[in-house]
Write a structure and sequence with these properties.
This protein is mainly α and about 140 residues long. The chain has helices spanning about 5-15, 20-30, 50-60, 75-85, 95-110, 115-135. The relative contact order is 0.16.
Length: about 140
């Protein structure tokens, strides 16, 4: 279930709370309004081998290719996760990508700090592009 809450609704809810963290959250809402690219990792427009690998994974994700996340090598895994952060809302089939994110979390979250950070950013990116408009747009 998705909360039907926008920024002004969030402010009303947060006004009931106390502490500096409330102001921090409200400032983040205001400062980051409509920034749907904040979790993107990696550059895909450079023509490098890394960019090509990310682009290939983006193509696989858009076509909903069956990918065995468990078998991805560490270097491939990072490119794959970076590809997720480049998806746009209209390129995401929610059930497919949530299944991928669950597999990433289950299989690789404890692999390394960098991988953990990449997985978190991928989850945040999908959350932001799928549900962010409902929260960030007044």
């Amino acid at each position: 279930m998705v909360a039907n809450l926008n920024i002004s609704g969030s402010q009303v809810l947060l006004n009931k709370e106390k502490g500096s963290k409330v102001n921090d959250i409200l400032n983040r809402f205001s400062d980051e309004k409509n920034n749907f690219n904040k979790f993107i990792i990696g550059k895909i427009d450079t023509g490098t081998e890394s960019a090509k690998k990310i682009l290939n994974f983006i193509k696989d994700l858009k076509s909903k290719k069956e990918i065995n996340v468990k078998l991805l090598e560490p270097s491939e895994l990072r490119y794959f996760i970076q590809a997720i952060t480049h998806l746009k809302k209209d390129e995401v089939e929610l059930n497919y990508i949530l299944n991928i994110l669950k597999q990433l979390y289950d299989e690789h979250f404890s692999t390394s700090q960098t991988t953990k950070s990449f997985i978190r950013k991928a989850i945040c990116h999908i959350d932001l592009i799928v549900f962010g408009e409902k929260i960030l747009k007044p």
